[in-house]
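Tokens for chain A. Residues wanted.
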């Protein structure tokens, strides 16, 4: 299963957990029916506006959407100071990573290799989609 399909499945699971049909869901999120279908089926990734609306409208945990980690819905019982404290720990981790990243050719190589692999997979997917589109266009002309 591709990353896009995993994200789409999690979004579908969220919609089903809040017991909304696609039509009701798209109305609340201000997107087209076809866009939601494409997202849920892994054909397209959700855009920034969709994710912001999803988090605000339904209190969705974006860690769950992106990575499948944590609860489906954010914990509203955490106070603002508790949330800030949670992110402060992450900020320190990021600072440590950046410190070592700047100084380590091995870490730079590892991260850049990972991104190159992701881009290669994405370009292969795009190439396949272009080929399928061109094939359909040729069939229509015939």
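Reply:
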């Amino acid at each position: 299963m591709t990353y896009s399909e995993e994200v789409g499945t999690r979004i579908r699971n969220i919609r089903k957990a809040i017991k909304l049909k696609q039509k009701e869901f798209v109305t609340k999120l201000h997107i087209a029916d076809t866009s939601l279908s494409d997202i849920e089926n892994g054909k397209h990734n959700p855009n920034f506006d969709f994710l912001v609306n999803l988090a605000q409208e339904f209190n969705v945990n974006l860690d769950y959407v992106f990575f499948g980690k944590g609860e489906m819905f954010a914990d509203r019982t955490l106070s603002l100071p508790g949330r800030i404290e949670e992110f402060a720990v992450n900020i320190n981790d990021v600072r440590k990573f950046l410190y070592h990243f700047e100084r380590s050719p091995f870490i730079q190589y590892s991260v850049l290799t990972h991104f190159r692999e992701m881009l290669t997979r994405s370009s292969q997917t795009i190439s396949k989609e272009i080929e399928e589109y061109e094939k359909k266009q040729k069939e229509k002309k015939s």
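Residues 105-141 form the longest helix (37 residues). The CA atoms of residues 55 and 61 lie 7 Å apart.
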